[in-house]
Structure formats: C-alpha cells, structure tokens
Predict the structure.
Amino acid sequence: MSEEELVLSLRNREKIAIEALYDMYSASLFGVISRIIPDTALAEDVLQETFVKIWHSFSGYSSEKGRLFTWMVNIARNLSIDKVRSKDFKNQNKNQELENNVTFIDEQRNTTYKPELLGIKELVSTLKPEQKSILDLVYFKGYTHVEASEELGVPLGTIKTRLRMAILQLRKHFN
C-alpha cells in the first residue's frame, strides 16, 4: 500500500488502513518511543496510545506540511515526552527503593560498590544535619531542588546554598 493510498484509506476511516499502518510503522515508532522511555512495558503502552491518537486525530494531518511518517513520529515523541514529564511517571520512579536500584545496576555491570570502603559515609557524616538531609533528597532520592524545598519547608535559595556548601565541603576531601 503506497503512502497516498494509506492516507486516503485513513481519511475514509477504513479499518484495514490502521492495520496496515501498524504493520508498516509500529517497529519504527516503538524505537523512537523506547529511546525516551526505557521501560518496555510503558513504551508499549505509549505505542498503543500513539496509534489511538493517530486514528482519532488523523483529520489534522496535512500532506502539504510533511510526510505521514514524520507526523506520526512527532506524535509518538510528544506522547513519550508527556509520559516522562507526567506526575505519575515521576512518582513511580521516586517510589522505588534506592538500594534495589543500586543492587540491580551493580548486578548488571558485575560490580560491587561498598561506600564504607571509600569512606563516603564518614565524609557525609561530617556535614551539618541540614546539608545531609538536602544531599540525601537531591542526590540519593532524585528530588529536584523545588521538590526538596517543598519537602523540607525551606526556601529554594536556601536549598541551593546549603547544597552548594555541602558539595564544596565534600570536594575538599577529594582535592
């Protein structure tokens, strides 16, 4: 089926058109999506959302503005970015235990990481308590500066200053 025939069939809302579209482009679109969303199951969900959106919003496609594939890639890309930026996606990543993630990565790379051998625990324990709590939220739990500010009830500028002071303090031990 040529692109022109496919576009005409999609405009006529023919079921065979969406099936052909899926057969022709699903692998390519999944590649685009999985570069943005590494979780395979979530990427598959976004692929499905992409084809649903293509079907429902096909009236917005114009061949004068670009090729069909380019239009579909933009839909897939935008849905993927929206998913990554969504509150649910961010919360899902925050709710995972750090220990589980570190162990999983270490197992994949066949490495062992023992911070006690590097003395990092001792170095971090030399920091002021308010610096340690911010360092823990931002670097070990993945919070943004704004989220850490909200969590601790401290102004954003104070968060940034304390974090910078903590990093400078730790840097002294390595230089």
